[in-house]
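Workshop exercise sheet. Pairs work together: one partner reads the sequence aloud, the other fills in the structure field after running the prediction. Swap roles for the next sheet.
Pair: D.N. / O.F.
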Amino acid sequence: MMTEDIKKKIRDIVGPDNVLDSELDRFGYSYDSSFVPLVPANKPDLVVRPTTTDEVSQVMAIASEYEIPVTPRGAATGRTGGSIPVKGGISLALDRMTKIVELDERNMMVTAEAGIRTFDLYNACAAKGLFYPPDPASWKYSTIGGNVAENSGGMRAVKYGVTKNYVMGLEVVLADGSILRTGGKMIKNVTGYDLTSLFVGSEGTLGVITNVLLRLISMPKKRGTLQIMFRSLDDGCRMIHDMLQDGIVPAASEIMDDICLGVAARRRNIDLPDGAKSAVIIEIDGEDESSLESQTTRIANVARSCEALVFRAAASEKEADELWSIRRGMSSAVATLAPNRFSEDIPVPRDAFPEVVRRIKKIAQKYGFLIAVYGHAGDGNLHPSILCDISKPGEEEKVHHAIEEIFAASLSLGGTLSGEHGIGITKQPYFANAVGEVAVRTMKAVKAALDPKGILNPGKIWL
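Structure field:
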């Protein structure tokens, strides 16, 4: 029960302007970027916007004392409902914690508060010639804390990995308000359990991440962009598979089917070559022009062997932007094709990518849906989007059956439910089947040990 006395205690900690409880304010914190429908019960009782770890600690201590649910929140760009306060309580918004605490050029590391935007952190490091590679599609808006909580990926994951590959240490406020600091700047560290990794991808269910220590690498000196079109989606998948088998690892490797190509071409007024049914966009990088030329030649040879329809290499930064234009904004572009869209996020082993695409297309035929397919083909992470109209009788039930079959296809090929979006609310029904009973029991034991009262982001991950 959120009493006025509790609200006053919290206002005394963070200041009255940083505690919101009007109907309109609470509504604004009741949804995120997922496809979870708006539900009045999902409004928090209170929105709290702290600016320091100490403030977060004091708020959590109060929440623990009165057993108030707390849902951590960054920029709410998540796709699975992770920041929706399904149990009410406090929506703990960290978007005011935006400082870069330290940019350590000598050790090539950066410490930043959880609320800083990924794009801003990237630019601050780039200005010093340092490179933070993870680039989720929402990187201009998403926050580092949210990226860590979801273990976000992005287009560069094929070569550089995902968020967890760069997290060296964390500052985390636990459920009782105590402050835990993990990891450090040491490259090697096997002193006890790897608590840093425990919190990466935990979706705010084990603690509130307030500060993040990230390792950086040197900024590549040269970048190049290639756009390759094929007569079939299968040819595009085969080209990426053959390229990786040949030992060519690009910085990014994205694929789009004919549905995606069509909507992108119309939206950006681009003429597509006759017969184009798929496109692959590749970014390469290196130390000099000769390195880019060598990679381009090798990729062109692979594309030719896979019967590429068009092969283009950008000659300038402007042309690179043009080649990438059909991929940027794909999610919102595809959403215009139908009244409703259900977008999923499945990763499979890279050699299974062509087969899972074929199975998804069969599922689309079975249920009579358009399913647009695009994603990070270089690392096996696919984003199939089911386009439908759930106002039609029986349509929503068919969608759920299709989603179940897409997940089943991924699992049967050695994949899983999520590569970068997390489980949240939307994938709960399938979670136990994906990880197994023993894994669920083990995770729940960890949760009970760190959050015995169950107040941290309740109602997420498992049913």
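Discussion prompt: The domain at 338-424 is CATH 3.30.70.2740 (Alpha-Beta Plaits). What would you look at next?
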